[in-house]
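Why do we bother with a discrete structure alphabet at all? Because it lets us treat a fold like text: something you can write down, compare, and reason about line by line. To make this less abstract, here is a complete entry for N-acetyltransferase domain-containing protein. Read it the way you would read a sentence in a foreign language you are learning: slowly, and without expecting to understand everything at once.
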Amino acid sequence: MILLRAITDREKLVLKEANVEAMVAGMSQYKRANQQAVKTFCEAQVNDEVRNAQQTDLETILTIVSTETNQVVGSIWYRLHNDAVYSDLVFICWLGIYPAYRRKGYARAALDQVAADLKQQGIKRMALQAFNNHQESMSLYESYGLEAKRTVMHKYL
């Protein structure tokens, strides 16, 4: 169904734009947030994260390609840890499927392939962070077997 391959520079730009868009949408649930300030914050954070990811062997950014159509359908980015407490953990930093390809099994296939590859390297746990107002993503993660382990709560003063 899919092939995971190294991401190109052009695809990295698309990943950055999609990641910023998803973060802005997720942060829209925060009341009183200035949308331009939120977008600026998200752009800076994504640029920093991608730049840092390119400077370490612990992070991997891959393009998800449909083997049926040979079309790029999305991307996945994950981080390994060398800290003893987290040495058996992979953190999914980003999983994005382009809108035209959603709900066709590509995200689940990418998670399955990453999990299978990393399990052979001794990884035993997978974690990610998601905005709870993005129901489509939350449904996927819950159906995949991910469980909420920590909740961040807000109160406006």
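What the structure line is telling us, in plain words: The radius of gyration is 16 Å. Helices lie at 9-27, 35-53, 106-119, 135-144.
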